């Protein structure tokens, strides 16, 4: 499982990396996102196709309500023409 820690990062660039990684994931694979900006969680859910993922865990840390951990599992999409991790997926940006 790939993990992205977005605390103290440049958010637009990080969101681009997450979207690219998600596109390359195969159904059943999971991605973990850790952050401390409450807006990031909703941004992530906006940039990823909602029919292609399921929220596996959505944890807010009790001692600091700004921190969160979001784990998403890629689902099979009926309309995906999909890149199933093929050669057009970038491994890094």
What's the SSE blueprint?
Elements: E1 2-5, H1 11-24, E2 30-35, H2 38-47, E3 53-60, E4 68-74
Parallel strand pairs: 1-2
Antiparallel strand pairs: 2-4, 3-4
Helix pairs in contact: 1-2
Which descriptors would you attach to this protein?
93 residues; alpha+beta; Translation Initiation Factor IF3; four-stranded mixed β-sheet
How would you summarize what this structure contains?
With 93 residues, this protein is an alpha+beta fold. The chain has a single domain, classed as 2-Layer Sandwich (Translation Initiation Factor IF3), CATH 3.30.110.40. The protein is built from 2 helices and 4 strands, in the order βαβαββ.
Describe this entry's structure for a reader.
This protein has one domain (2-74): TusA-like domain (Translation Initiation Factor IF3). The protein is 26% helix and 27% strand. It has helices spanning 11-24, 38-47; strands spanning 2-5, 30-35, 53-60, 68-74. The protein has a four-stranded mixed sheet with strand order 1-2-4-3. β1 (2-5), α1 (11-24) and β2 (30-35) form a beta-alpha-beta unit. The two termini are 19 Å apart.
């Amino acid at each position: 499982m790939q993990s992205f820690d977005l605390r103290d990062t440049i958010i637009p660039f990080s969101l681009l990396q997450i979207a690219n990684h998600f596109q390359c994931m195969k159904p059943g694979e999971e991605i973990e996102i850790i952050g401390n900006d409450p807006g990031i969680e909703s941004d992530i859910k906006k940039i990823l196709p909602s029919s292609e993922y399921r929220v596996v865990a959505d944890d807010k840390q009790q001692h600091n309500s700004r921190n969160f951990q979001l784990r998403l599992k890629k689902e099979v999409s009926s309309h995906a023409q999909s890149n199933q991790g093929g050669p057009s997926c970038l491994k890094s940006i």
